[in-house]
Amino acid sequence: MSRRMLVAGNWKMYTTSGEGATLVQDVADLLEMLDVEAEVAVCPPFTGLKAVSTLIELDHLTIALGAQDCHWESEGAYTGAIAPRMLADLRCSYVIVGHSERREYFGETDETVNKKVRAVFDAGMTPIMCVGESLAVREALETEAFVRQQVRIGAEGLTPEQAARLVVAYEPIWAIGTGRTPTPEAANDVARSIRATLGAVYGPPVAMQVRVLYGGSVKPENAKMFFEEPDVDGGLIGGAALKADSFVDIVKAAR
Ligand code: PEP
């Protein structure tokens, strides 16, 4: 079963809409010179989505658009929140759900992550569901059990078709923005375990279609090592996605 690699940039709370438009244009200009095999996505802050979406449409860029979060309701009195259908309206294809920064600073739980995952599918988009352990969990040798539980709850109640389209990003919390990473083999072990967890619920053929990304201090220098692992289908890139050349160098490694 061949899965198309996905390299997605998570711009976090960086870039105004003008800066975001410049960044995506720079990425597109660099990609144009390449024979790119991977699917490429960028996830700007909410305020940048419109400008980036317009640019992608007008210039026919082969870059997918994603958001970094959403509410699970389709509308309502939730001041400050954004509904999935508002993101679909801006031609988002992906929504990052359950990023560790959302879990840590905004009280997201596996249960709210699950509601969001289902809401994103219901709105016709694809969730990039983030999972990953803290250093304490890692040191207690409980990584796989912890991540399996996050996956089991986060991906509960999907149709087999939805489950097959799911993207899971394995992002050890201790690796995000720190310059530290697991070995590629260790990342692959967790990716394989994520696939097996989904296989136990939805069946192995569905699990074989799920794309599992690695995220956490991916740079041009180390990307290839992770992308060569059999169960790693690309990357979720934070800091290195904010510079067009480093992001595109990571895309190049996804072959
Ligand atoms: C992230 O925040 O999703 C991430 C992977 O960040 P970084 O690449 O900066 O570690």
Topology overview:
Layout (H helix, E strand, L loop, with lengths): L5 E5 L6 H16 L6 E5 L2 H13 L5 E4 L16 H6 L4 E4 L2 H7 L3 H13 L3 E6 L3 H5 L3 H12 L5 H6 L1 E4 L13 H19 L1 H4 L3 E5 L7 H5 L6 E4 L6 H9 L3
Helix pairs in contact: 1-2, 1-12, 5-7, 7-9
Bound molecules: phosphoenolpyruvate.
Phosphoenolpyruvate binds next to strand 8.
Q: Quick summary of this structure?
A:
The protein is of the alpha/beta class and 255 residues long. The protein has helices at residues 17-32, 46-58, 84-89, 100-106, 110-122, 135-139, 143-154, 160-165, 184-202, 204-207, 223-227, 244-252, and strands spanning 6-10, 39-43, 64-67, 94-97, 126-131, 167-170, 211-215, 234-237.
Number of domains: 1
Number of strands: 8
CATH topology: TIM Barrel
With strands numbered from the N-terminus, the spatial order across the biggest sheet is 1-2-3-4-5-6-7-8
Sketch the topology as an H/E string, one letter per element.
EHEHEHEHHEHHHEHHEHEH
Q: List the ions, cofactors and other small molecules found in this model.
A: phosphoenolpyruvate
**Main sheet specs:** 8 strands, parallel, barrel
What percentage of the residues does DSSP assign to strands (E)?
Answer: 5-15%
- Report the helical percentage: 40-55%
CATH architecture: Alpha-Beta Barrel
Rounded average pLDDT: 97
Q: What's the level 1 CATH class?
A: Alpha Beta
CATH superfamily: Aldolase class I
Please report the distance between the alpha carbons of the first and last residues: 16 Å
Shape: globular
Explained architecture:
The chain has 255 residues and is of the alpha/beta class. The chain has one domain (6-253): TIM Barrel, CATH 3.20.20. Helices cover 45% and strands 15% of the residues. The chain is built from twelve helices and eight strands. The chain has helices at residues 17-32, 46-58, 84-89, 100-106, 110-122, 135-139, 143-154, 160-165, 184-202, 204-207, 223-227, 244-252; strands at residues 6-10, 39-43, 64-67, 94-97, 126-131, 167-170, 211-215, 234-237. It has an eight-stranded parallel beta barrel with strand order 1-2-3-4-5-6-7-8, surrounded by five helices. β1, α1 (17-32) and β2 (39-43) form a beta-alpha-beta unit. The longest helix has 19 residues, at 184-202. It is globular. It starts with 5 loop residues before the first strand and ends with a helix. Bound molecules: phosphoenolpyruvate.
